[in-house]
Amino acid sequence: MLLFQSAISKAWVPYLQKKIELNDRRTIKSTIRKISFVYFLAVFLISFSGYIYINYFIDRSYNGSIYIVPFVTMGYAFDGVWKLYNSILIVEKNYKLYTKQVIIIGILNMCLTYIFVNTFGILGAAFSTLLSFFIGFAWNYIYLSYNVNWFEK
After folding, report:
1. CA distance linking residue 17 with residue 85, whole number of Å
2. DSSP per residue over 71-103, as a string?
3. Strand intervals (E) in the chain
4. What does the pLDDT read at residue 153?
5. CA 4/CA 80 separation, integer angstroms
6. What does the pLDDT profile of the chain (153 residues) look like in tens digits?
7. What's the CA gap between 32 and 144, in Å, rounded?
8. 32-37 long-range contacts, Cβ below 8 Å, gap at least 24?
9. Which of these, 9, 28, 40, 61, has the minimum number of CB atoms within 10 Å of its CB?
10. Does the global pTM surpass 0.85?
11. CA dist., res. 20 & res. 100, Å (int)
């Protein structure tokens, strides 16, 4: 999932800059929705493939990892969508908010990982990653969509 979202992120920035120059924010919003759909479709496919692979090709002692794959994959899907929104902050030169978000979410992830690993083991680490990336995504989405109404300008 990380390789997939990394490739999309590299192609996204030039596309985003061109659309901003044309003041075509509605297309940007629509494209983010389409990419998000593809990410979450990939979550389903990777999780299902991981289930098949772990269940039939890996030693039975690793069967517990079947439950980890969907959490980590979903987390990185939210991270991918978060990066799309982060690119808007960077292109708009809102470095202060971008930096604040990355630091706060990083600290949150460390704290949640510590708490959840002690309680749930390795599944807690996967869940803390999912939760942290979701919060980062939600923060950017709410900020750009409602606080500054970026897509409506």
Report:
1. 13
2. HHHHHHHHHHHHHHHHHHHHHTT-HHHHHHHHH
3. none
4. 66
5. 9
6. 888 888 998 899 999 999 999 989 999 999 999 999 999 999 999 999 999 999 889 888 888 888 999 999 999 999 999 999 999 999 889 999 999 999 999 999 999 999 999 999 999 999 999 999 999 999 999 999 888 888 886
7. 13
8. 32/81, 32/84, 32/85, 35/8, 35/80, 35/81, 35/84, 36/77, 36/81, 36/84
9. 61
10. yes
11. 24
DSSP class of residue 147 equals: I
> Which residue has tokens 């978000």?
101
Cβ-contact 32, 85 below 8 angstroms = yes
Write out the two tokens for 67: 């439950």
Query: Which residue in this structure is represented by tokens 């939760």?
Result: 131
- DSSP category for residue 23: T
65: amino acid identity, one letter: S
What HEC string does the chain produce? CHHHHHHHHHHHHHHHHHHHHCCCHHHHHHHHHHHHHHHHHHHHHHHHHHHHHHHHHCCHHHHHHHHHHHHHHHHHHHHHHHHHHHHHHHHCCCHHHHHHHHHHHHHHHHHHHHHHHHHHCHHHHHHHHHHHHHHHHHHHHHHHHHHCCHHHC
